[in-house]
Amino acid sequence: MAETKDGPITIKKYANRRLYNTATSSYVTLDHLCQMVKDGTDFVVYDAKSGDDITRSVLTQIIVEEESKGQNLLPIGFLRQLISFYGDSLGGLVPRYLEHSMQSFARNEEQMRSLLHNAFEGIFPLQNFEEMNKQNVALFENAMKMFTPFYGEAGAKGAGRPAEGAAAAGDGSEDPTIRELKNKLNDMQTQLNSLITKKS
């Protein structure tokens, strides 16, 4: 994330829910903050009255707003699993796991964008996309499996969930989240194949 020479930009949130950008001396909206994130501009949000850092809750609010617009990036299965970890003894590992997974995915972002761009230009190397598809599915599968050996031993709290995880690991069945991710990637490839066929 890009910072100013004095560090992240400070955003103040007032009781009337208005957000004030101290760098530009102007009021902004969640859409403005969303664009700042996409532009790589780092910022922190403070409650104007208490001085508390509320950056996390504001970023979460941005996600809720974006999801409500119809561009759903968070699968239902993933959301259910995430909620189930709140208050769990393994909950402390989840943030690092998610951050690691997203960082790994982001490292492939530019290559994926280039491949998708070539698809619309009619020179799409299909085998490259198939390989990228396999790599990303494998990435998420490996990340999900990181928890399986530990969670199977968790016991007490959420006993039903560990049992399901252990069964999935033992009998070769597939985690619903991984299956949904695979389906989405396969749907994307089907659409791209259709575009290629039409252009050829």
What does this structure look like?
There is one protein chain. By secondary structure, the protein is an alpha+beta fold. Helices cover 59% and strands 8% of the residues. Helix 4 packs antiparallel against helix 6 and helix 6 packs antiparallel against helix 9. The longest helix has 24 residues. 6% of the residues are buried. About 10% of the residues have low confidence.
Briefly, what is this?
By secondary structure, this protein is of the alpha+beta class.
Low-confidence stretches: 150-170
In what order do the strands lie side by side in the largest sheet? 3-2-1-4
Total strands: the figure is: 4
Tell me what portion of residues adopts beta-strand conformation: 5-15%
Q: How far is it from the N-terminal to the C-terminal residue, by CA?
A: 41 Å
Give me the strand/helix succession: EEEHEHHHHHHHH
Helix content: 55-70%
Please count the helical segments.
Answer: 9
Radius of gyration: 21 Å
Structural class, please? alpha+beta
Largest sheet: 4 strands, mixed
Overall 3D shape: globular
State the main characteristics.
200 residues; alpha+beta; globular; four-stranded mixed beta sheet; single chain
What's the helix and strand layout?
Layout: E1 9-13, E2 19-21, E3 26-28, H1 30-38, E4 43-47, H2 55-68, H3 76-84, H4 94-107, H5 109-120, H6 126-145, H7 148-151, H8 160-171, H9 176-199
Parallel strand pairs: 1-4
Antiparallel strand pairs: 1-2, 2-3
Helix pairs in contact: 1-2, 4-6, 5-6, 6-9
